[in-house]
Amino acid sequence: MADNDLDVYLTARNVLVELRLNLAKAVAAGYKKGETETAVKSLVEVQQAIDVIDHASEELEELEEAEDDED
Description:
Elements lengths: L1 H27 L6 H36 L1
């Protein structure tokens, strides 16, 4: 089951990485009042979500390793 959970995290992370790139492209396209500020705010939020997923997947991997050590 843990492998499936890790797959979910990996898939979600990949989607967010693509979204982050698209937001960065929007910022790089040049300043557009309102749109650029929104893109920057969204970029920060997406990066935070990626960080959360990274942390959660690390915890899951550690838990899986601990369970393997018990066997």
